[in-house]
């Protein structure tokens, strides 16, 4: 039997996306590379545990879930989480950002200063700009200020991000226009924490990094993987990658695979096997031209 590996998720490095595996192995994902794997026959998707510890009961996790922890491990994982506001005394500096994912989809968020733009790549932000930097709670208060005063959300579902990618403006300036206008409105607000240092607008564009613009863009996506199943397989040429999503050219057309669906399964190499996982039609935003790219 072929060696089985457990995926530990997709990470974005300075030179592009990388699949990580339990035990430390890493697989760089370059456009044009063939990505192919199968779920072990009779396999069961299990909880990955919390904060470096295995799930004590190896609880099962639904195949369609992009979260890969059981209820108890998910609670433990968030017990010391910045996202859950449980570590207010974190001494590290933070940055507030505005991120744009497509027409009408802008969010505000925070990330540790030391992480640079990694958080934006992981979320699939097509364009972003820093808004300010300072202590954690000052960054949190600024985030809340924008939500309350300007109605800017702090979360956008990945399904919505995929749906609007077909309508991206051709130019970098066009892709940056919404956050440029919002940045100006944000810095004009009163009530900013004194300990937060504002940062000037400087749009950073990831469309080229993701492979969703210009001459290097791939063909239109036709579907997305709904879930992985025991014995199922998928393989294809990598034509684009954005956030956790891989766009694979398969014999069924270009299919979007959310790599969060891979975690918790035992996977083996599947060179040459046909695409045999549940795939649903890719949802597109109303009024958007046909095709993903």
Approximate shape = globular
Strand order of the largest sheet: 3-2-1-14-4-11-12-13-10-15
Order of helices and strands: EEEEHEEHEHHHEEHEEEEEE
**Termini Cα gap:** 39 Å
Tell me the radius of gyration. 20 Å
> Mean of the pLDDT scores?
89
Number of helices: 6
Oligomer: single chain
Secondary-structure content class = alpha+beta
Low-pLDDT regions: 287-293
> How many β-strands, per DSSP?
15
Share of helix, binned: 10-25%
Q: Report the major sheet.
A: 10 strands, mixed
Percentage of residues in DSSP E strands: 25-35%
Topology:
Elements (H helix, E strand, L loop, with lengths): L4 E9 L2 E6 L4 E3 L5 E6 L31 H7 L16 E9 L2 E8 L5 H6 L3 E8 L1 H15 L7 H7 L7 H16 L9 E2 L5 E2 L1 H4 L10 E5 L7 E10 L2 E6 L2 E6 L7 E4 L9 E3 L12
Parallel strand pairs: 10-13
Antiparallel strand pairs: 1-2, 1-14, 2-3, 4-11, 4-14, 5-6, 5-7, 7-8, 7-9, 10-15, 11-12, 12-13
